[in-house]
Amino acid sequence: MKNLLLVAAIGCVVISSTACTTVGSGMGAIEWTPGSGTLKDPIGEGFHVVSPFSEIYQYDLREQEHQESLDVLANNGLSIVLDTSILFKPVQSELYLLQTEIGPDYYRILLGPLLRSGARKVVGRYSPEEIYSTKREEVEREIFAEVNRKLQSKHVQVDAILIRDVHLPQIVQAAIEMKLQQEQRALAMQFVLDKERKEAERKKIEAGGIADYQQLIGKGLTEMLLQWKQIDAIEKLVQSPNSKTIVLDAGKGNFPMILDTKNTESK
């Protein structure tokens, strides 16, 4: 009798322990029962009492990151390794469809193959130099668009695909880095040349202004010199002992001035 009670007690403990489940924070769950199959309504966070024969499939509804190294070929056939990160999460309202169509291992079955396929398709349009230096963000956007296009109606949301690093054969990477350094030096030299050219143009304009100013001043000085010469000549004529008549230009708009002189004898 005691053995029967012990067995019954153990059975009650086992049944009660399998008749409840806890869904953690940020999680969602789908229940399967032998009688009804997969239930459409997802189970939210917290403690839940379920059938002791139910199976519970939990999904992380939070943003998840999966890192993957992808072997791809550039447009010239060179092998490149991309270190990527994909940020994703299941669509909470579509957990039932995700469970029945794909299942909890949806990254391995769905996302991983789509990421690798999209990366190979996009990278094949670019050169190693573009992927390594100038077009990395563009490649990211195109891979993201390619993956999302194929993910329509697949009950998973991809928020970003990032290229963390690009690995090239050492000799190719060294050649690209040398070329980039030369381009930077060329840009720096071009900047210096442009600066000097602008400075030369500024000095040319400044010199032209100075020349015009000097020409204007020089013209004024020449007229003043002629006037001074004229005054000096008149003064010498006036002081001359010979009788004479001197006609002076009184300036524009005025009548000429006439001076009469006569010879005087010294005493």
Structure description:
With 267 residues, this protein is an alpha+beta fold. It is 50% helix and 25% strand. It has 3 domains: 59 residues, no CATH class; 105 residues, Band 7 domain (Tetrahydropterin Synthase, Chain A), CATH 3.30.479; 35 residues, no CATH class. It is built from 6 helices and 10 strands. The chain has a 3-stranded antiparallel β-sheet with strand order 3-2-5, with helices on one face. Strands 6-7-8 form a 3-stranded antiparallel β-sheet. It is rod-shaped, with a radius of gyration of 49 Å. Keywords: Membrane, Signal. One of its GO terms (cellular component) is membrane. This is SPFH/band 7 domain protein.
Short key terms for the protein model shown above:
disordered C terminus; 6 helices; 267 residues; 25% strand; alpha+beta; rod-shaped; Prohibitin; Tetrahydropterin Synthase, Chain A; 10 strands; three-stranded antiparallel beta sheet
The number of distinct helices, counting runs of at least 4 residues, comes to 6
Percentage of residues in helical conformation: 40-55%
Number of domains: 3
Q: Which value, in Å, is the CA radius of gyration?
A: 49 Å
| CATH topology descriptor of the largest domain | Tetrahydropterin Synthase, Chain A
Shape field:
rod-shaped
SS elements, strand count: 10
Please give the order of strands in the largest beta sheet. 3-2-5
**Low-confidence parts, pLDDT < 50 over ≥5 residues?**
263-267
**CATH H-tier superfamily of the largest domain:** Band 7 domain
Averaged pLDDT: 79
What's the CATH class of the largest domain, please?
Alpha Beta
CATH architecture of the largest domain: 2-Layer Sandwich
- Please report which band the strand proportion falls in: under 5%, 5-15%, 15-25%, 25-35%, 35-45% or over 45%: 25-35%
Kindly name the structural category.
alpha+beta
